[in-house]
């Protein structure tokens, strides 16, 4: 323990060892906030006789929670498994599982991710014959989630016009549908948990008596409901230790309220406000860039950051001609970093929007460099995985109508739209789930639906005593999914993914310890829990305590399904591999890497065009850029491209205004403003400062002849840019693009399938 403490600077030490009172640690990126929070947990357990069971810590992602647990295990000789460290959603899920009856949920309630939620809403609108042009499903979803995040049920929302009133009715109908099907969306997890604790006094007092120490990382991104939830759990006596950075508040669009920081200071009567000003992460030029940039924002709470690490290298800036070429440049740079001995997992490629990753992924794939994407299309969101999960959901809770509809006719079993309409009518008429309504359907439809029910029952029966991964295997065969994809021409990838699901189940079981040992500290009660009342559920049967290990409150299958919905999107099968890290800037929050690429720094992309429409939008983009820059320890690359293909359109971009907000002396420009080409497609190498040779031209040469009839060297005219000469052609067919020199308009990259060009 002594060692842990003497690795801290005086301010950090003061924060770690504060008395058990509410405290706010306000500090910039890389100043050790997360380290302080983790060390404080260790300190409380080690020297203050606080039981691990008396601590609740909230992190922003599952990944961060895992890291925190790993660090704690390294610091303390205790078993951290089962500690209450997780995201708001994860912790609420856990409380609801333990007290599902009091929360009014079925034991096997299932979690809807945002895609599931949207399709549930579409299904609702359809069943009520609502015009989805007038009431767009997506808008309704935002409406519902916003209301829930403010803690409001449908009857509490004030409707000020007819349109609004209709939304409120639909909100209520949506909640009824979810309740019938035993499913909860993300916002519901929190709201339901909040309501549970606020209405159920014994339960609330139990947990208030238990969690004497509540610690929250990334406090600046809490929303109003999360804030209220914390306040409820803290009661009058518990100590809340919040760490945050107002300059890194980047979730306003999802309801985060940076005002919670000052509200916290006031309402929790914070006496200990500590600022940390020493940055331990980044070299000088990187930190200077971050500081200079963020100084352009107004209304900051005000703090400084300094480093002892020296200037280090300048920030490298690169201008690409196209997104393809930007990707090639990233590949070449990464290759040379790797050959210099940098570890792949210490190199991150960040982008503002998910759509940018495709081109980069393609280039990495072609170059054979292992990479890992966070966010983006999550493993659990792929179609074949969704199908498999739906079967598992039905085995766990057959009344989940979304799951039912997803697979009732997949693989095809001759159950058509007509049969389903009949079934839906019967379900409505009798107030039943689709599954339960099957016996009410007569005729041929009834027979084939009945066969499906039998199949699900058989799957449940066959797997009831099997370990989770065996369960998944049996399901894959019995459901017909594997045989189905075997007959599909491009099914091999999908089968591979389905096999990864078996591995994911295996990994999950070993990590969560289902059926293995009981965590050591979950045995005898320690002082933090001593005075807490015993918990008896409303029907008097259940004596549950939050100390109960998870298997007691959740079957491995239920737990795995929750995990599939809540997981931050890592493809587990790739875990552990030394791979380049790809992610959006949002998901890079809290992380750090030796080298970072921030790509696509163009007006409209970063800052994002939507930000111009919203008040404070630009400042939020700037904070996002601040987060991105401060992820880097030693080397930072910034890149932008003259043209970019996004959402099927070629965009001609100006470089981001953020370049003008960075200190010139910290930047090193790697490329001349316009790439020089000779007319036949090979780059003149001397034109490049120290940038590597562009790979785009190698591709171009191999495809130059499949060019939709255009030839290099040909003169063309374009409505907007006038006359020009084709200097290069890349790709072919649907991906065919030409680089054209338009004289005073400069070099442009045009999509030959879209651009209106004429021969001259
Ligand atoms: P962010 O705002 O990005 O979440 P943070 O304030 O949480 O950053 P940490 O991630 O805790 O910062 O710390 C940044 C880096 O600095 C980590 O690698 C951490 O181990 C290191 N660090 C923190 N404090 C010290 C210290 N006193 N001595 C040496 N290294 C430190
Ligand atoms: Mg942190």
From TrEMBL:
What does the record give under GO molecular function? helicase activity
Origin, by domain of life? Bacteria
Query: The UvrD-like helicase C-terminal domain covers which part of the protein?
Result: 284-590
Renumbered to this chain, the signal peptide range is: none
Sorted alphabetically, which Gene3D superfamilies does this protein's record hold? 1.10.10.160, P-loop containing nucleotide triphosphate hydrolases, PCRA, domain 4
Indicate the segments forming the UvrD-like helicase ATP-binding domain, all copies. Answer: 6-283
Which family does the entry's similarity section mention? Belongs to the helicase family. UvrD subfamily.
Q: Which protein is depicted?
A: DNA 3'-5' helicase
Which organism's genome codes for this protein? Noviherbaspirillum aridicola
Its taxonomic path starts at: Bacteria, Pseudomonadati, Pseudomonadota, Betaproteobacteria, Burkholderiales
């Amino acid at each position: 323990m002594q060692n842990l403490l003497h690795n801290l600077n005086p301010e950090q030490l003061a924060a770690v060892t504060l008395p058990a009172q509410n405290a706010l640690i306000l500090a910039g990126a890389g100043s050790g906030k997360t380290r302080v929070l983790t060390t404080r947990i260790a300190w409380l357990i080690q020297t203050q006789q606080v039981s691990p069971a008396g601590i609740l810590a909230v992190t922003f992602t599952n990944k961060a929670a895992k890291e925190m647990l790993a660090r704690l295990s390294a610091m303390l000789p205790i078993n951290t498994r089962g500690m209450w460290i997780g995201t708001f959603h994860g912790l609420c899920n856990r409380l609801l599982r333990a007290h599902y009856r009091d929360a009014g949920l079925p034991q096997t309630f299932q979690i809807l991710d945002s895609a599931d939620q949207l399709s549930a809403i579409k299904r609702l609108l359809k069943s009520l014959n609502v015009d989805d042009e007038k009431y767009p499903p997506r808008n309704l979803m935002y409406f519902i989630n916003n209301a829930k995040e403010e803690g409001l049920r449908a009857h509490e929302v004030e409707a000020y016009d007819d349109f609004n009133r209709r939304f409120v009715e639909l909100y209520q109908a949506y909640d009824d549908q979810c309740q019938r099907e035993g499913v909860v969306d993300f916002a519901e997890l929190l709201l339901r948990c909040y309501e549970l604790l606020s209405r159920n006094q014994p339960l609330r007092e139990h947990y208030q008596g238990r969690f004497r120490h509540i610690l929250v990382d990334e406090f600046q991104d809490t929303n109003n409901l999360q804030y209220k939830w914390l306040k409820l759990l803290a009661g009058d006596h518990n100590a809340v230790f919040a760490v945050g950075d107002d300059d890194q508040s980047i979730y306003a669009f999802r309801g985060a309220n940076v005002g919670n920081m000052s509200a916290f200071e006031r309402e929790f009567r914070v006496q200990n406000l500590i600022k940390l000003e020493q940055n331990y992460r980044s070299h000088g030029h990187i930190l200077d860039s971050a500081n200079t940039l963020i100084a352009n924002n107004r209304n900051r709470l005000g703090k400084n950051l300094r480093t002892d690490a020296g200037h280090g290298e300048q920030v490298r800036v690169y201008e690409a001609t196209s997104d393809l070429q930007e990707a090639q440049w990233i590949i070449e740079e990464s290759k040379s970093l790797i050959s210099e001995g940098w570890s792949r997992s210490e190199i991150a490629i960040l982008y503002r929007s998910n759509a940018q990753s495709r081109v980069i992924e393609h280039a990495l794939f072609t170059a054979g460099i292992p990479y890992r994407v966070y966010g983006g299309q999550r493993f659990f969101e792929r179609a074949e995985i969704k199908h498999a999960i739906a079967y598992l959901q039905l085995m766990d809770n057959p009344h989940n109508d979304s799951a039912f509809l997803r697979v009732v006719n997949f693989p095809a079993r001759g159950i058509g739209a007509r049969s389903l309409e009949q079934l839906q009518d019967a379900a409505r008429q009798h107030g039943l789930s689709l599954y339960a309504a099957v016996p009410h359907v007569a005729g041929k439809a009834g027979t084939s639906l009945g066969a499906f029910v039998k199949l699900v029952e058989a799957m449940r029966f066959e797997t009831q005593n099997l370990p989770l991964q065996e369960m998944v295997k049996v399901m894959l065969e019995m459901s017909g999914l594997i045989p189905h994809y075997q007959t599909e021409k491009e099914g091999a990838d999908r089968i591979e993914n389905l096999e990864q699901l078996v591995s994911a189940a295996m990994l999950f079981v070993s990590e969560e310890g289902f059926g293995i040992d009981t965590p050591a500290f979950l045995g005898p009660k320690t002082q933090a829990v001593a005075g807490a009342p015993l918990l008896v559920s409303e029907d008097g049967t259940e004596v549950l305590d939050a100390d109960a290990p998870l298997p007691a409150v959740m079957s491995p299958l239920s737990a795995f399904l929750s995990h599939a919905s809540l997981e931050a999107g890592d493809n587990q099968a790739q875990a552990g591999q030394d791979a380049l890290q790809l992610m959006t800037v949002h998901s890079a929050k809290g992380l750090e890497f030796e080298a970072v690429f921030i790509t696509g720094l163009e007006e409209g992309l970063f800052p994002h065009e939507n930000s111009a429409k919203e008040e404070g939008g630009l400042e939020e983009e700037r904070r996002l850029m601040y987060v991105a820059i401060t992820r880097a320890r030693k080397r930072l690359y910034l890149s932008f491209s003259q043209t970019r293909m996004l959402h099927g359109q070629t965009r001609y971009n100006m470089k981001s205004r953020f370049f003008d907000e960075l200190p010139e002396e910290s930047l090193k420009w790697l490329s001349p403003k316009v790439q020089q080409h000779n007319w036949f497609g090979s780059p003149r190498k001397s034109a490049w400062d120290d940038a590597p040779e562009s790979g785009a031209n190698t591709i171009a040469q191999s495809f130059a002849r499949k060019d939709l009839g255009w030839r290099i060297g040909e003169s063309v005219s374009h409505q907007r840019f006038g006359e020009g000469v084709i200097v290069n052609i890349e790709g072919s067919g649907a991906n065919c693009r030409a680089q054209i020199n338009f004289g005073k308009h400069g070099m442009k990259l045009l999509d030959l399938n879209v651009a209106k060009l004429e021969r001259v």
